[in-house]
Amino acid sequence: MSWAPPTDPVNKKSLKVSQLCEICHCRKAVIKRPKNLQKVCKECFFHVFETEIHNTIVNNNLFQRGEKIAVGASGGKDSTVLCYIMKLLNERYDYGVDIYLLSIDEGIVGYRDDSLATVERNQKQYGLPLEIFSFRDLYNWTMDEIVAVAGIRNSCTYCGVFRRQALDRGAQKLGINHVVTGHNADDMAETVLMNILRGDVARLEKSTAIVTSSGGSPIKRTKPFKYSYQKEIVLYAHYKKLDYFSTECTYAPEAFRGTARELMKNLEAVRPSCIIDIIRSGENLVLKESEQRFAKKPVNSTSSKPQFVDGNRCERCNYLSSNKICKACMLLEGLEKSRASVTIESDTSCDGAAKTLRNLEKLSF
Ligand code: SF4
Ligand SMILES: [Zn+2]
Ligand SMILES: [Zn+2]
To answer: Going by CA atoms, what residue is nearest to atom 2 of ligand 1?
Structure first.
C-alpha cells in the first residue's frame, strides 16, 4: 500500500510532502520564515512568532506582576504589532501588567498626524488607554520648525533626543516607570554595526541591552522584539490584517544609518541568520578593562569639569540628567539662537544649532 501524506483538515485536497508545513506537517506551508527559511503554515507562523517573543520576555524577566507599562505607539508596523502582541500575551500568559499606549506627536505634517490617526483607531480596536504628548507642548517647537531652522541633515538627532525625553516625561505623568518599545532585531544589528564601524566603544557596550535607561532617569525601557526580524513583523501584521500606517517619515534617516541599513539588507540576502549573529556577537563582546575606562571617560573631559552623577537634575528644566544641562535643553538653546539670528538677519544660517551639536558631541550622556 502506498503512503499518503496527511492533508490539511480544512482543505481536503491532498498535498505533496514538499508543500506541507515543516512544523505541523499537516497544513499547507504558505510562508517561508525570513529568520530561518523554514516553510510553515499561517497558524504555525503565528504560534512560533508569538512564542519566541513570550520566551524573550520570560527569559529576561521583563515584566513584574502589577506593573504599569507604557507601550510606545506610533501607528507604524513595529509599534502596532507590539501593542497587539502585548495585549495578547498579557492575557494568554497572565503577566498581570496594566498596558497603556503612549504616543509622541513630533509635529511632522503629512506623516505623524496621519500615523496618530492610526494609533487612535488601534486604541479603540484593542481597548487600551491612550495618551499623546506633543513636542509643541513640551518644547514649544515642532519637528517641521526645527528642520526649517537647523536643516534636514540633523533632523533625526533632534527628533531622537526630544522623543526619548518626551517618552520619559509622558510616562512619568502617567505614573509609569516602564516604557516598552518596538525596536526589532534589524534595528539592533544595525546599531551594533554602526558602532563597530565608528569604533564607538562606549555605545557598543550598551547597544545589545534589552533593558536600558537614560542617564539619571528612573524610567526603564525594554525591547521585547530584540530577536524579532523586521520582515516577520511585517508578515505578522499582514496575515493578522492589523491596521497600521506604512508611510515613511518625510525626513530621511541619518545618512550613515541608511548606509548601515543597506549593508545589513545585503548581508541578510546572502545569509539570513546574520541579523541574529551580529546581535549575538555584540552580546558576547567583553571590553578590556583599559577600554572600559576609556569608554566611561569622555574624550574631551577635563579634571576641572564638575562631575554630575545619576539623580542630578537639569539646571534649566529640572528634568533628571547626569549632566548639568540636559541634552534636550542644550539642543533647544542652539535652536533659539538660530531662530533669533534668522529673525534678525533674515538669514538661513543655522550656526547656533550646528555649534550646539558640536558641543553635544563633547559631552558624555
Ligand atoms: S526618521 Fe528621523 S525625523 Fe523622522 S520620525 Fe524618525 S527620528 Fe524623527
Ligand atoms: Zn503548521
Ligand atoms: Zn533640561
So the answer is: 156
